[in-house]
Amino acid sequence: MNEITQLEQQIEHLLLKNIESDTFSMKLESLISARHHQVTLLLSDSNALTRSEFDQLVKQTKALKATLEKHKTHIREGLLKAKIRQQSASAYQTYQK
Questions:
Q1: pLDDT tens per residue across span 3-33
Q2: What totals of helices (H) and strands (E) does the chain contain, helices first?
Q3: Residues 56 and 1: beta-carbon distance below 8 Å
Q4: Does residue 97 or residue 78 have the better pLDDT?
Q5: pTM score > 0.70 for this model?
Q6: I need a labelling partner for 44 at 20 to 30 A (CA). Which of 18, 26, 35, 61 fits?
Q7: Residue-wise pLDDT tens digits, 41-64
Q8: What does the alpha-carbon distance between residue 90 and residue 26 come to, in Å, rounded to a whole number?
Q9: What does residue 10 show for φ and ψ, rounded to 5 degrees?
Q10: Contact (Cβ atoms closer than 8 angstroms) between residue 42 and residue 48
Q11: Are 14 and 24 contacting, i.e. CB atoms less than 8 angstroms apart?
Q12: Is 45 helix (H, G, I), strand (E, B) or coil?
């Protein structure tokens, strides 16, 4: 459970600080994927979680979903800006050849 909490904190930090970064989408995808993997591992072992831990995991997942929804507009803007920068750089490199 600690790994999941740490990943959630990293996701929240990323959302608050680095939306303009060129690597934002890769970092966000990586962190969400890592969290999903940890949750899958926990859920695959029926003895790994008590009922209260399971309820806490559900609560954390809902909170993360709400956080992502809250930042959806900013995430989309950051991804679009990164895509535009990438296209501009690609066009510039094409014309430099």
A1: 999 999 999 998 888 666 667 878 888 999 9
A2: 4, 0
A3: yes
A4: 78
A5: yes
A6: 26
A7: 988 987 888 899 999 999 999 999
A8: 19
A9: -65, -40
A10: yes
A11: yes
A12: coil
